[in-house]
Specification:
By secondary structure, this protein is α/β, with parallel strands linked by helices. The protein is 38% helix and 28% strand. It has a 3-stranded parallel beta sheet, with helices on both faces.
Amino acid sequence: MKPLRISVLTISDSVASGDRADTSGAAIVDWARTHSYEIAEHATVSDRNERIVAALLKSADTDAVDVVLTTGGT
């Protein structure tokens, strides 16, 4: 059986600008790996609707991702 392929999207202005570390995204990645899930991608976008939508569509429109998990935002 193939492992579940996960995309992690952190939505945060401060993380996207490099002002803060992506601790919640890193925690999800760590959790996924302890459950033997595959991290297909781990991305960060600023808290802007058009960027969030574009990132979600990109992840959802590929056969390389089974689940998209989001974190962050205001």
